[in-house]
Amino acid sequence: MAIAFDDSLITGNDMIDTQHRELIERIASFVACCERGDSKVQAIKMLAYMDEYTNFHFSAEEKIQEEAQYPGISEHRQKHEEFKKNIAELYDYLDELEGPTDEFTEIVRKKVVDWLMYHIKTFDRSVAEYINMRDNADRL
Length: 140
What we know:
The protein is elongated, with a radius of gyration of 16 Å. It has helices at about 15-35, 40-70, 75-95, 100-135. By secondary structure, the protein is an all-alpha fold.
């Protein structure tokens, strides 16, 4: 499963886009680990590596939203919590398995890759557009 940052994921906010690139690279590394059938220990390490950056990124995004007084911040935070729950479930799955399986990799695709791509294209893009409109109100 090819995972890469492309133009369809650009929000227009440089900081968010830079962080999304890093997050997607970490997710791609985790997925590659799963597809190769790496050991359970390696998969857990890669999941933790991805999870760490996810938490950093979500905190940064939420701080930007607070500073911008983004009206949709509550719903956005709920979506971030949903993703964090998905990650916690992946830890649980790995705990029960010998290592990543094809079924596990499919769960990762749905609950991480597809979720994040949709989230960036909708929720994150809305935040960036709101900030851009607010910061450039005099140009409208």
